[in-house]
Predict the structure of DDE Tnp4 domain-containing protein.
Amino acid sequence: MALVDRNFCVMFCHIGNKGKISDGTVFRDSVLFEKLQRNSLQLPQPKPLSNGDVNVPYVFVADNGFPLHRNIMKPFPGEHSEGSTRRNFNRKLSSVRIVVENTFGVMSARFRVLRKPITLQPNKASKVVMACSLLHNFLRKSCNSRSIYTPSGYIDTVVNGEIINSVTWRQDIGEGEGAFRSMRNIARCSALTAIEVRNKFAEHFRDMN
């Protein structure tokens, strides 16, 4: 499990859980969850959105594999009609979540060891994955290497709200997802405050249109 920033760099990486356990267990086993529960991540103080007067917390963007939390936003479940507030919110979230997909995709394309399950002891495999993450960050942050590591057109982009998929890293990986696997979704109840926060963001995106 990883947390990435808008520049496709890995900010946090949790490695070592068994592949068959649920997403909730993976997340709860992480230091990120522990710090989130203790409110010790030193996140910026909540601020009003541009069109509101209610303080809204800073959030991480996630998919349905994660719990809804006042600091974790995921899509509204189910199908929603075109033009609806919930569908618009889900589309906005998807355009941001492509950063995560592309980060994993680029790493799998560039570091071939990640294209299939790593046949090493768990502690050694964890070190390999962490090393790949650190090398990925170094190559992304260096002005000299970034244009070679991820040249123009290598990563997906969003144009006028529409996601433009790049086929380059997908072609490099080939069939399948490589060694990365999506975590399992598990239905769970959300705290009322988390639902209220998501609704505030949904209303904000609706009013921006």
Remarks:
- The chain has seven helices and eight strands.
- The helical segments are 23-28, 31-38, 85-110, 122-141, 143-149, 168-173, 192-208.
- The chain has one domain: 2-208.
- Residues 2-208 form one domain.
